Amino acid sequence: MTGASEQPVGPEVPGWSPRPFPEPVTLTGRYAELRPLSSADYAELYAATCGPDDGSRWTYLPAVMPKDLPALWMLMASRLEADPATYALVGEDGRVAGTFALCSVDPVNGSIELGWVLLGASLSRTRAATEAFHLVMAHAFDDLGYRRLEWKCDSLNEPSRRAAARLGFSYEGTFRQHRVVKGRNRDSAWFSITDAEWPALRARNEAWLDPANFDADGGQRTPLVPASAG
């Protein structure tokens, strides 16, 4: 499409209006529940993510692993102040074992980020974790009407990069010298999903999460692959 001066411009976005700011809500699936993070969740979150073998879970986060429960309390209180739509992730055992947030909210342009992801060992590589991400993705696109969902991580964080690709995010590039985190340079890898891509990803996720896709021990029968590869 061209403008009056024959310069190329982007397509119109019919009926567009700024999106609502995300409010903390409870999102419930078959295997996981997301609920607004509160101080009542801190003890379980601390137990799940701050043990002697959990240091690597904090390597790429912009915070050091809390040394005790009061330290986690203070950290999460500041997280809630910065990003009110921060969730406690409840796994199949009914315990809080992780957290993440909707952040970098841009209601005017319809862009939002799924960030500050922290999962305990009991959630790593589980259907509960995948469903939790699916629930918040559906909330961002279907309930709130956002056009773009972002995932950003340290470019050296290979597990996060793999998770983004598995969930259907497309790699957009690396922002060099994007931040200084814990006194070290961070180049940030950026990924996104757009509202045009979401329907195919929604259908793919729902098919994978169907109980028929899992054996009696909860093992997947068919793996989750990007929609374009399916």
Automatic annotation (TrEMBL):
Region Disordered, annotated ranges: 1-21
InterPro entries reported for this sequence: Acyl_CoA_acyltransferase, GNAT_dom, Ribosomal_N-acetyltransferase
Domain spans labelled N-acetyltransferase: 32-187
Protein name: N-acetyltransferase
